[in-house]
Amino acid sequence: MTVSTPTNDNSQAQPVRYPVICIDGPSGAGKGTVTWRLAQALGYQLLDSGALYRIVGLKAFEAGLITADASKVIDEMAVLQLTQSLDIAFVPNNESGRVDIIVNDEAVGEQVRNETIGGYASQVAVYPKVRNALLTLQQDMATRSGLVADGRDMGTVVFPNADVKVFLTASAEARAKRRVTQLMEAGQVADFEEILTTIKARDDRDENRTTAPSKPADDALVLDSSMLDANAVYEQIKKHCQNQGVCFNS
Length: 250
Ligand SMILES: Nc1ncnc2c1ncn2[C@@H]1O[C@H](COP(=O)(O)OP(=O)(O)O)[C@@H](O)[C@H]1O
Ligand SMILES: Nc1ccn([C@@H]2O[C@H](COP(=O)(O)OP(=O)(O)O)[C@@H](O)[C@H]2O)c(=O)n1
Hints:
Elements: E1 20-24, H1 31-42, E2 45-48, H2 49-62, H3 76-85, E3 88-92, E4 99-103, E5 106-108, H4 115-124, H5 128-133, H6 135-140, E6 147-151, H7 154-158, E7 164-169, H8 172-185, H9 192-208, E8 221-224, H10 230-243
Parallel strand pairs: 1-6, 1-7, 2-6, 7-8
Antiparallel strand pairs: 3-4, 4-5
Helix pairs in contact: 1-10, 2-4, 4-9, 8-9
The chain binds adenosine-5'-diphosphate (ADP) and cytidine-5'-diphosphate.
Cytidine-5'-diphosphate (CDP) binds at residues 27, 31-32, 49-50, 53-54, 118, 121-122, 125, 151-153, 202, 206.
Enzyme class: transferase
Keywords: ATP-binding, Cytoplasm, Kinase, Nucleotide-binding, Transferase
GO molecular function, one term: kinase activity
């Protein structure tokens, strides 16, 4: 897997290939939680690919290219141009241990992490040209260090040769319940039925688009976390990674 070939003969040198672990699956399945823990344990970087679509979704909404109720016919070329105009960089933050996303010189924080912007993201994520414009940026992340990548198409499209692929899922009800708890813990008001409806609408858009639909790669471990706590999910995925040859120090 990690092919860092030490050789004295530079003409024979192979490019270093770092290990890539893909965690795909629907909203609320626990991808972010397990991705973070794996990245910490392994000292790998973390790719939050959803943040890219969230940023494009937010900017498209601000530019009037999409509406909150998804009723507008979207001009794909306009969203592509907007995507291409964004200067997006991933910058490792040694203090937090996370990777900051910088857009046009401004750090994008937690403000994109809400269900409304998740909905905007899934509207722009349907478009192949938009997805393609974000491809190299994501793939470049694997050229610098080991990577744990979280998204919908990490194992199917972005890193088809990844060392480990997991599709983490859970029932829509279990996922909505987790979101309600998460929002309430953050001091926000959360309505279960409303969240369940938005989660289902996003699932539907993500699973049924023609380009890079959300689905397990043929060689992915599919894990249903509905009845597992976050720790059990981590342990099962860690074991799977080890079976695939990934070394954990602890
Ligand atoms: N297996 C689990 N059981 C219960 N809650 C979980 C589990 N995994 C994660 N969570 C919690 O559910 C919420 C959503 O998890 P998150 O990792 O953000 O999901 P995703 O990235 O797939 O949308 C968070 O509050 C997280 O702490
Ligand atoms: N690799 C990815 C990641 C996200 N997305 C889109 O971006 C939206 C937000 O993704 P996310 O991973 O931040 O969402 P959560 O699973 O955290 O709720 C998804 O609903 C998808 O529409 C995608 O199409 N491809």
